[in-house]
Design a protein that fits this description.
This protein is of the alpha/beta class and 425 residues long. The protein contains twelve helices and 19 strands. The chain folds into four domains: 116 residues, Rossmann fold, CATH 3.40.50; 119 residues, Transcription Regulator spoIIAA; 106 residues, Transcription Regulator spoIIAA (2-Layer Sandwich), CATH 3.30.750; 51 residues, OB fold (Dihydrolipoamide Acetyltransferase, E2P) (Beta Barrel). Strand 18 and strand 19 form a beta hairpin. The longest helix has 24 residues. The termini are far apart.
Amino acid sequence: MKIAIITFGCKVNQYESEYMAEVLEENGHIIVPEESQADVYIINSCAVTHTAENKVKNRIRRIKRAYPSSKVMVVGCYPQLSPEEVLKVGADVVLGNKEKKEIWKYISLEKPSFFVDRAYWLRDGKVEKLKAGYIEKTRAFVKVEDGCDRSCTYCAIRLARGTKIRSKPIEQSVEEIEGLVKMGFKEIVITGINLGRYGIDTGYHLTDLLWEIEKIEGDFRIRLSSLNPEDVDEKIYNYFRNSSKVCHHLHLSLQSGSNRILKKMNRSYTKEEFMNIVESLRKIDPYFSITTDVIVGFPGETERDFLESVEAIKEAKFSRVHAFRYSKRAGTLAAIMKDQIPGNVKRDRINYLENVAKEVAKEYRKNLVGKRAKVLVENKRNGFYRGYDQYYIYHEMPSGKTGEIRETKIVHVTDEGVVSVEARD
């Protein structure tokens, strides 16, 4: 059968989509681009916000209109939380997070049907392992951890992914990455649902894994996907100080610049503690790139709370901010809190915050002008080669070669990134 896989959400989902593609091909199926006509469309879904769910719903409807005879399978976090709702929208087969690990077993199911193990993380022993990775042969995501044992009051992902940390064994992770490096991947992105908690179930620390990856031979670099502030400790600092392969970029989730709101969110740090982490990373490298998430319009957020988030963005000098309007998630404490913020207020606040964040990010990039960068060239479009450097800054270059890490010099700042030229001694 011809199968198209459509992915929404986080880097973990991207990894799992690649895994599904591999095992389906091994079972004789043909993977086609997501906009192609296919016998089966697999939508690997996200449920972090209502917006994410609506994107899944809209894609289901689009496919049904365009290809009414094709089967639509929706897998992942959205059906893990609301399988009946996904079926009502028009999905033919609905599978949870456990089931997509064995997607080949379900690909020929008659419609409509759903299989969702509601508490799969209590007995889930299967660990995925990629053999080939992304077809673009530049950057590969490697999932090493699943589950979240935190209890943020706004987040339903822990309900979809489980409250038990499951860490991929170090030996298996290293073996997987060795294979990807041998295939020519130049950047390995280490990812997980709560990556900083890697190893608490096995007696290890995340850096135990990272130092083993460091030993792998080959021309490649390492990037960490995202950490929570409470998981950034001296071992993490030491790794960034001494690693020869890690990119000096970290996605560090702020969520709010107001200590009052952070407490309501049940985040276990203060704004001041967050800024201390930023300062410590910038002592390692003054250009250390920090990206973040900020939630706007959390229940009870006052104008003062909001402006504290704005000021925190300016103070941290983030290189990129992912801002989200607070979205009620069934089963979370925040969904039943009083003082829910009206939609028009959230809209106005996020528009203002995003404009500030864009200016802050541009100022960060201006400080890079004249600096050398190591850019992983990913593609060529409209006469320019394009890719991201070690700081996760987007480059456009007049020359390059797809798949290589190219040393460039930054000469100009654009609205989206920078322009650079080949560095010459």
